[in-house]
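REQUEST ID: PR-0412
SUBMITTED BY: lab tech R.K.
PRIORITY: routine
TASK: structure prediction, single protein chain
INPUT:
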Amino acid sequence: MTEAEAPKTILEVRDLKTCFQTRDGLVTAVDGVSLEVAAGECLGVVGESGSGKSVTFASVMGLIKAPGRIDAGSIRFRGRELVGLAPADYRRLRGKDIAMTMQDALTALNPAYSVADQIIEVLLAHDDSLTGSRRARSRQARAKALEMMNLVGIPSAERRLDDYPHQFSGGMRQRIMIAIALACRPKLLIADEPTTALDVTIQAQVLELIADIRERLGMSVVLITHDLGVVAEYCDRVVVMYAGQVVESGPTRDVIDNPLHPYTQGLLGSIPRLSNLSERIRPIDGTVPELIDLPPQCRFLDRCSQALPACAAPISMRSVAQARQVRCISPALETALDPTPKVAYGGGERS
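STATUS: complete
OUTPUT:
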């Protein structure tokens, strides 16, 4: 398939169900998730811990191992079905076409190898442009590793190429993770909480780096995060997950300005507003339910202030506006579609 023939939707997930067998029962961590990522797009995926964000994209990467399994659904990357793909084929895909940065760079990087060795390993495995003997290919890979470290803004990259992960700060380790992920110029980068444990200034630098490289390389990005302020700043569309399901999706600006699902409204209501510091933060009452033997009802029911008797039955996603979907039947949805922006977040009001 040529670039001109490549589908505009680079990743398509349909009705994905991923489960883990535990001593207490079957945990359905991802239950019927459907989403798409367009070529060149940045998709934000948000939700509390345990909502299924990371497991969804670990499934995409083929990283679900026993006692976990994909029970149902389809994952198509550039038109190719990935569910059931042979492990050797998945290894050829990971790193080259799809790359993922993990939450904690210090534990994700191997402390026994220099950062150069870890970038070179990816290049030797996947970069078809390296030619000649093993030694010649290694020299070419080392030059490319230096190029990648310069690309992600590592100061004095040539001098630090043979340093080990513990010799770098948290922000620099995160940049090295990004360098490894981008070494083979993947079509899709999955960034799983890329700013975990970083201070605010370094968080901004890492996110700006991802945005800049996305623009330069024309790749698609999935940004998994808890922070709706980050999503509002960097993402084209957003998917909100709760208890293993997608509860709302749509263009970022529309979802932020007019959240339709009570859970999304709760997430936005719990963000401090710098434009009104006297306003109290409104936390969401309750906790995420256990994902074992869940009753057939709206999973947000026990925490929802807008619950109806009909919410005791399973609720499906429905289209409520152009390019927007929500898993809710509240009559308040109709008035929520008022296009006038209502929500302030992060640094203040957005109109």
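NOTES: The two ends are 43 Å apart (CA to CA).
REVIEWED BY: pending
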